[in-house]
Every structure is written in structure tokens, then in C-alpha cells.
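Quick one, T. Sequence first:
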Amino acid sequence: MRIGVLAAGAGVSTKAVRFYEQVGLLSAPPRTSAGYRDYPPRAADRLAFVRDAQAAGLTLGEIREVLRVRDEGQAPCEHVAVLIAEHLRAVEERIAELTRTRAELLRLAETAAATDPGTCTEDDICRILASQ
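C-alpha cells:
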């Protein structure tokens, strides 16, 4: 299968296919006598996996490791479960951080609404952001 057909079928660009090849997520395919890449059908499944794993938040390095485990003939389920748990924990921490930031921004918005710029002095950089 030529690179354009593979890329279109996987919903990625030909540049992405070459990049995935370069970083070791996709094996370099054999070449035709004319020098074109000739990807096997399983390359489409591998690209679909890479796309799905990225959508789940895995890094290219993590995806490479999952593929390595699979390529060695082992089921990567346990490894993937650990990665998912780590990413979920990080997302939950980020949500908590964003919740705190939102609360602070709401407080600052109230302060801004109640602040009369005419009462600011030259010594004030910004009374809205200054510690209360």
C-alpha cells in the first residue's frame, strides 16, 4: 500500500506517516522497484492504534513502549493500565488546580468590578492583583 493510501485510510498526513516511521512507531516498509514505500496492511492498524493512544493522552514515548511490548509478543494490557492510571491522576490534579484558579479569578473579577480606578495611587501597580 502506498503512503498516500495508508495516510488517507488512517486519517493522518503523509508527513505524519514519515514522522512516525522516523521516531520508531512504524517500521520502515519495503520499497517498490520504483523506490516507493510499500506498506503492509497491518501498518494501517498500527497507525490507528497510534492515533487512538494519542487521543487518550499517551505520549509518543509511551506509545512506542506499548508497541515494543506488543512487538515482543506480549500483551501490553498491564502496562497500558498503569499508564492510564497515571494519566488519570494527572488529569484529576490538573482539574483541581484549574478549579482553584477559577475560584481565584472569580474573586479577582469581583474585586475588579468593585475597584474605582480613580482611587489608585502612583504607588499602586494594580490594586486588583495586589495581596489583600
